[in-house]
Structure formats: structure tokens, C-alpha cells
Model the fold of this input.
Amino acid sequence: MVTFLIIFASKKFELKIFSRGTLRDFWEKNGDCELQLKTWYRETEKSNWKTINELKSEYPNASILKDNRIVFNIKGNDYRLIVKFNFEYQLAWIRFIGTHAEYDKINANKI
Done:
């Protein structure tokens, strides 16, 4: 029996976000938040968060929901971004981006 051991110590994996196109579509319609969404995307993509607490240390105003969903306030809380994270596999899924008024009409824990 041969056992293989692969070591990734020198490679830093970036968090994979699904999907940047969702953000791009939104900022093309709402140009006043383009810079903030691009900044959030770059910072999040380069993060190496292993837990919600690590995320909260960088985004203290983010709200924690059920099932590893996080609500980010974008552009001074004019917009809300809901992202579901899988910290173990370094994956993130954009579940919602909208105005604060639109956010108030959805169930953030289910979307």
C-alpha cells in the first residue's frame, strides 16, 4: 500500500466567491456603490478566514445570521449584501444584494 502526502504549505488559497457577476450587474444599475462592492470583493477574496469571529474582526458591523450567512452593510448601510460562507472549503455564495428597503422585504435567513 502506497500513501501519498501532499503539502500545500507554500500556497495561499484565496476564498472563492460565487459570483462576481452578481455584484457587477448590481453596480451597473447602482453606480454609487461600485467602488465599495469592488473593495469588498477584493478584500474578501484575499481573506483567509477560518471562522465567523475572524471575519467579524475585519468587519465588526457585519451581522451574523443562521447557517453561516453574513450581512454586510455597503455604502454606509444604503445597501445590504448577504453572503453564505463555507469557511472549511474557503467558499462564499452571494445570496442577495439590494437596497435597505429591499432587504426589509426578504427573509435573510432563507434567501
In short: The two ends are 47 Å apart (CA to CA). The beta strands are 16-18, 63-64, 69-74, 79-86, 91-99. Residues 34-45 form the longest helix (12 residues). The helical segments are 20-29, 34-45, 52-58, 100-103.
